[in-house]
Amino acid sequence: MAKRLVAAVGAVVFGAGMLVSANRPIATALPPESDATAAIPGVGPCKSDPAPVHESIVPRTLEVPINYPVITVDPGPPPENRTRVKMELPADPCVNPCPDLTDGPARPPSVFEQLGIPQLILRPQPFHFAFPNPNEPEKPPAPEPADPPVETAPQSPARALPQVSQVREVAKLTGANSINRTDKRWQVMGTDLGIFWESKPGEVAIAFGDTVGANFHPPGGFGDDWRSNLLAFSTDRDLTDGVTFDRMVTDSRCHAVELLSSKKLDNIEITTIPTSGFAIGDRQYMSYMSIRTWNSIPGTWFTNYGGIAYSDDHGETWTKDPHAQWDNIFGVANFQVTSMVPQGDHVYMFGTANTRLGSVGLARVPKDQVLNKTAYQYWVDGNWTPVGGQHVASAIAEAPAAELSVRYDETRDVWQMSYLDTAKAGLVIRESDSPQGIWSPSAVTVSALQFPELYGGFIHPWSTGNDLYFTMSTWSDYNVYLMHAKVD
Q1: Is it true that the peptide bond before 438 is cis, omega within 30 degrees of 0?
Q2: Which of 309, 347, 366, 392 has CA 20 to 30 A from 222's CA?
Q3: What 3-state class would DSSP assign to 367?
Q4: Is pLDDT of 41 > 90?
């Protein structure tokens, strides 16, 4: 969580200068239309709350972890929290359902705040060197080995550069003064990502990354009540004023629950971060990355593996499949950060290595074999092949690409790919007539010149025609915003 400081700052420092020197026009995001939600009862900011504003890149508080070595034994898989509590929330989001949990006395301003200078907090944290767990639990039997064939898969002609215009910030989705008041309803004060998938007809799921509650202080996810990931659901089809959450998965009153547990031990497994999701029938799938440590060179981090979890109770509880995992061999393996998309008879898996600096590879698997790693075919030089696996997949999109979001737009019969391009220091969009490309050149949708610490760019599946809706996170705010752009 806290270690994401280095990786996030790296994305900005690595790319911002390159974008400034590129001297080309950039679509500029307009501020949110404050009147868009004013006439809609029960939706939008409450009159008693101030309008949300972006935090300055000069922080009020700067927390710096100070690592010290610890020798230990890997404790093995952490237990999953299976406690679930459902509660009826007031229809009016401006009614606080749990003031006893969220409305404590206001903290008096610190001396630093009164003087208008950042407060520096040094926090000692252990950095573990672990021996293997001698009592590692046995895995359940693996699926029967598959023997997929080698099949020809030529690339389609390249599409033209997407033309991006009318970019605007629609609404703040999470945190204080957001349209969902997640701080009051689910004790979600700071979070990021906002990964969409259609969980069932007429409903989307939204997955979030590292989350904090009480005592939240940006930049980054600093504070108490740390949860590695959360899940919300929405049936809101009118995206012009934001995405209103119907509910979040909770384990107690007004408390969103961590779905995929993590050991929270730096240099063993510090956290587990969702990367994409999809549904096939009544089963939900979520790809995720097991983060070993955020401590790395700028723009990178280290994963243990990229994996797939599944849920058979509509996202309430999840199981990490022990065999559907792509190990991070030598720290450079592909498919650590993935975006998985069902289309036709297959699920397509787009993936990058555990950095913001890698290229994009591609694999596919029959829909009924998603958890069988041996059934995957990788796109290699014009063929689908199981030979060589994740280590030989050809690049379908050049580096640098980070935090992929890919979808198939049925209305236009076009594939769309959004990601953070650190070379262009912005979120970009590309299009193709086939998953293997050739993909169009990338067009910037939101620039770091306007939001200096941006990342994410996850596409809402109900974007239609030329209207592209996507989420954006910023390190200085450490919350999630819905953005809109016209793409022609």
Answers
A1: yes
A2: 309
A3: helix
A4: no
E strand or H helix that includes residue 11: helix 4-22
| Secondary structure class of 99 (helix, strand, coil) | helix
Strands 479-487 and 467-474: antiparallel
- Cα dihedral across residues 312, 318, 321, 325: positive or negative: positive
Q: What is the mean pLDDT of the chain?
A: 90
Residue 20: band (very low, low, confident or very high) from pLDDT cuts 50, 70, 90:
very low
Question: Does residue 400 have a cis bond before it (omega within 30 degrees)?
Answer: yes
- State both tokens at 25: 């026009």
Residue given tokens 């009164």 in the structure block = 114
Residues 6+ apart with CB under 8 A from 395: 359, 360, 361
The token pair that represents 62 in the structure block:
């700067």
Instruction: Say if pTM beats, i.e. exceeds, 0.90.
Output: yes
Which DSSP string corresponds to 160-223?
PPP-EEEEEEEEE-SSTTSTT-HHHHS---B--EEEEEEEETTEEEEEE-SBB-TT--SSSS-S
pLDDT at residue 51 above 90? Answer: no
Q: DSSP for 312-338?
A: SSTTSS-EEEEEEEEE-GGG--S-SEE
Band (pLDDT 50/70/90 cuts) for residue 330 is confident
Of the candidates 8, 55, 29, the residue with the CA atom closest to the CA atom of residue 477: 55
Phi and psi at residue 222, to the nearest 5°: -100, 140
Residue 47's pLDDT band, with cuts at 50, 70 and 90, is: confident
Residue 177 in contact with residue 359, Cβ under 8 Å? Answer: no
Q: What angle do CA 200, 201, 204 make, to 5 degrees?
A: 60
